[in-house]
Fold:
Amino acid sequence: MAAVLFVCLGNICRSPMAEGILRARPEAKGWTIDSAGTAGHHAGEHADPRTERVLRRHGQQFAHAARAVTADDFPRYDMLLAMDADNLSDLRRRCPAGHQHKLTLALEPLGGGDVPDPYYGGPEGFDHVHDLLTRALDVWVQRWSGDAA
Ligand code: 4NP
Structure:
């Protein structure tokens, strides 16, 4: 059982990709899963059509409305997984001391590093994001399901 929030900048490309991948995992049934952006410019929008296309191809699409991170997210979630170092440092600045331990990079199981922002690139960047997040989430799911990983 886990409550996890995925965080990127705009909450339209990378963090909804992670949310869709995790929501589709059978182990995640009953978990609290959401995504949000460190910025609110795209609030209320669907996921980027390029993210939607990749999720649909994998049978992982879901209804998404972008939103910004709020102060309530820090107590509410067990883990807040940032897509890149900028997102993580934004979260670290805003997070109360008692919840700092919940913050890390989504790719920590792969040794850390950034999920590259695909927004200004071509569609292949979105496939790469999906591949990276799938591999990292395989490990996160094992950990949150209580298996050693
Ligand atoms: P995301 O990608 O943080 O993965 O949702 C981006 C979305 C929008 C912008 C940048 C990155 N933007 O500059 O509007």
In short: The longest strand covers residues 3-8. The pocket of 4-nitrophenyl phosphate is lined by residues 8-14, 41, 117, 119 (CB under 6 Å). The first helix runs from residue 14 to 23. The chain has a mean pLDDT of 96.
